[in-house]
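Subject: design request, 228 residues
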């Protein structure tokens, strides 16, 4: 029988060591990505970018799905944006939405330094305001949602409206340290995540699942959906 790890060994130290091993073995380090995180930190932005293993996962999902047009809701320092931009072909495009102008400036510098700036459009404003302006564009092949959780249902709805049959939707931070399963929560972010997952489960436009994750960012998860 395969060797198993008992629950009492599953400590933060263990999962961080495993994450570091997986990162070193399968992801590695690259100046454009590492510098983006460093500049984000130096500017005082929160360290809430995706973990390296999840950035690589986004990159692979984009390539596996043949995505040419990608929509990202929530840019921050552009760490995940770089991963996505490197996944689309030479004639591909990543459109990313950022609410704060000074954060968008940091993201732009990081994208240009990483050599992918010409593939990325940064749109300024709140997602709920910017998304309706994209209705006349070509449909997106992949949508990555990683912004304010209170608006998840708005973003998920627009993912379907701006996508097509076969569009892949990835929603980040869907477990929130386990609080997503707390029916009594009064935290608006957790409630936003719950409403988003419930929407993915009942809305006939989607076929979806979600998984729990343990990585450098702790205990969380992602939802993965297909627009049908």
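Subject: RE: design request

Done. Sequence follows.
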């Amino acid at each position: 029988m395969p060797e198993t790890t008992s629950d009492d060994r599953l400590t933060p130290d263990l999962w961080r060591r495993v994450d570091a091993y997986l990162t070193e073995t399968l992801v590695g380090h690259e100046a454009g990505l590492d510098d983006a995180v460093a500049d984000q930190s130096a500017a005082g932005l929160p360290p809430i970018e995706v973990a390296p293993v999840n950035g690589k996962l986004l990159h692979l999902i984009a390539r596996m799905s043949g995505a040419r047009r990608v929509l990202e809701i929530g840019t921050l320092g552009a760490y995940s944006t770089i991963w996505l931009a490197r996944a689309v072909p030479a004639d591909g495009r990543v459109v990313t939405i950022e609410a704060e102008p000074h954060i968008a400036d940091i993201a732009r510098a990081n994208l240009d330094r990483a050599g992918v700036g010409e593939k990325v459009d940064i749109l300024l404003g709140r997602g709920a305001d910017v998304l309706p302006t994209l209705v006349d564009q070509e449909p997106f092949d992949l949508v990555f949602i990683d912004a304010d959780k209170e608006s998840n249902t708005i973003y998920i709805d627009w993912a379907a409206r701006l996508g097509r049959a076969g569009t892949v939707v990835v929603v980040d931070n869907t477990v929130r340290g386990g609080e997503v399963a707390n029916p009594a929560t009064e935290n608006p972010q957790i409630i936003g995540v719950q409403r988003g997952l419930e929407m993915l489960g009942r809305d006939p436009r989607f076929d979806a699942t979600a998984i729990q994750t343990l990585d450098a960012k702790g205990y969380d998860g992602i939802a993965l959906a297909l627009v049908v």
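The longest strand covers residues 206-215.
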